[in-house]
Amino acid sequence: MVDSWQTCPSCKSKNVITRGKRFYFLLFFGLGGVLMWIGLMIYWPLLIAGFIVIIISMFSFMMPRVNRCRDCGHKWKP
């Protein structure tokens, strides 16, 4: 989600993206799913690692929202 009204405090750019809890949940859940799939097909220890990453994805709802500038990479809390 792009918040065009908020500018980067570092470079004053309006090219800002907000990443929240849903982004991190989907990131960890997807990574865990891929690891579990590779673990089933190729290398079984990745199955365990994928399961652990999926469990960790449930705790991603405790992470705060973060704004990130797409131009300079600066991150800050909204």
From TrEMBL:
Its recorded name reads LITAF domain-containing protein
The organism that produces this protein has a lineage beginning with: Bacteria, Bacillati, Bacillota, Bacilli, Bacillales
Q: Which organism is it from?
A: Paenibacillus brevis
Where on the tree of life does the source sit, at the highest rank? Answer: Bacteria
> What UniProt keywords apply to this chain's record, in alphabetical order?
Membrane, Transmembrane, Transmembrane helix
Residue spans crossing the bilayer = 23-40, 46-66
